[in-house]
Specification:
Order of helices and strands of chain B: HEEHHHEEEEEE
Number of domains of chain B: 1
Helix content of chain A: under 10%
Number of strands of chain B: 8
Radius of gyration of chain B: 13 Å
Number of strands of chain A: 14
Oligomer: heterodimer
Largest interface: A-B, 19 and 21 residues
Shape of chain B: globular
Structural class of chain A: mainly beta
Strand order of the largest sheet of chain B: 3-8-4-5-6-7
Number of helices of chain A: 2
Strand order of the largest sheet of chain A: 5-6-12-11-7-1-2-4-3-10
Strand content of chain A: 35-45%
Number of domains of chain A: 1
Distance between the termini of chain A: 60 Å
Largest sheet of chain A: 10 strands, mixed
């Protein structure tokens, strides 16, 4: 996979780095990829980040160092999200995460200049915002380099009262599998449960 | 003069036309409210005010009202809300927690 690397920001010494996370959720629990009900947008920046279209919620979120395999590609990555107030647990259990797209993007940007009390700050003020709106960084118009660090699928997740941990895998994970070793569609659980509780009576299905 | 209630009220009133008066209090009393804020909050009048035209919900969404013992904020999404910080004289965002009472405007 080729990557386009730009170098706009590094022509200047002042730069900042943040990461944007996108997790696609399936609200219908039917496991159909592409029929995504909601996309959760998070960032590891400490204020909200908007790219002009989407707004990324700041959360304590971290991910493992990317490790490349023998083909010089990253196979999987673990993400840990602070489970604030248990809201993520509610979200996690009410939605189907697995097999849905996930993306991690690194933004390297030059902080936008700001003026406060007629003093101009070339590289911005940390967290200064107008008094009537919550702090938000708009990266749509700043000088930036954007790298998609990881674009794959949510493989598994687990939630505790403190954190939500997920494992992401590349979309190429399916290529080596002639037949899926596991499926993610929870609809099939119904038929499995039916098979378990079905009562066989003298070699035939008990109907009474 | 601003505080968390007046800031949230003005923001929501622009979008949802909130009641202009409540129990003898009117929007013209905003400054008076800021002055008597502690009394207002200790009587939980801020909760009673929003309860008069809102319903309590469990999961927040944008523009829901977020009430704590000492503040009135507005939900940004299901995880966070913004509130006016009088000491800093600006709006800040906070994470929703179990102490937050979330209300949704009945016609909202």
């Amino acid at each position: 996979m080729s990557k386009t690397i730009t170098n706009s920001v590094r022509s200047d010494d002042q730069l900042a780095i943040l990461h944007l996370f996108e997790f696609h959720m399936d609200k219908d629990l039917d496991g159909t990829v592409g029929e995504v009900g909601e996309i959760l947008y998070f960032t590891d920046h400490d204020i909200f980040v908007t790219d002009g279209t989407n707004e990324y919620t700041p959360l304590a979120i971290s991910f493992d160092r990317l490790v490349e395999d023998f083909s010089m590609a990253s196979d999987s990555i673990n993400v840990s999200i602070d489970n604030i107030n248990g809201a993520l647990t509610t979200e996690a259990l009410a939605s189907e995460w697995r097999n849905n797209p996930a993306k991690i993007t690194r933004i390297i940007y030059t902080p936008p200049s700001q003026t406060l009390d007629s003093v101009n700050y070339d590289y911005g003020l940390v967290h200064y915002e107008a008094a009537t709106t919550y702090p938000r960084l708009d990266i749509s118009s700043v000088v930036k380099d954007t790298y998609v660090m990881f674009d794959g699928l949510i493989d598994s997740f687990n939630a505790t009262s403190q954190a939500l941990n997920g494992s992401l895998t590349t979309q190429f994970a399916h290529w080596a599998k002639p037949y899926p070793s596991r499926t993610y569609n929870q609809n099939e659980f119904t038929s499995i449960v039916n098979a378990i509780v079905d009562v066989v009576y003298w070699g035939r299905q008990e109907t009474v | 003069m601003n505080n968390c209630f007046t800031t949230a009220y003005k923001y929501l009133d622009l979008r949802y036309s909130l009641p202009q008066s409540w129990k003898g209090w009117t929007v013209e009393d905003m400054d008076k409210f800021v002055k008597d804020e502690k009394k207002f909050l200790s009587r939980k009048d801020h909760i009673a005010f929003f309860r008069s035209f809102c319903r309590v919900v469990k999961e927040a969404k944008k523009d829901d009202i977020v009430l704590t013992r000492k503040s009135v904020g507005v939900a940004i999404n299901q995880f966070t809300y913004w509130v006016y910080n009088e000491d800093l004289e600006r709006v800040e965002h906070l994470n929703l927690n179990n102490e937050c009472l979330i209300m949704r405007i009945n016609n909202g």
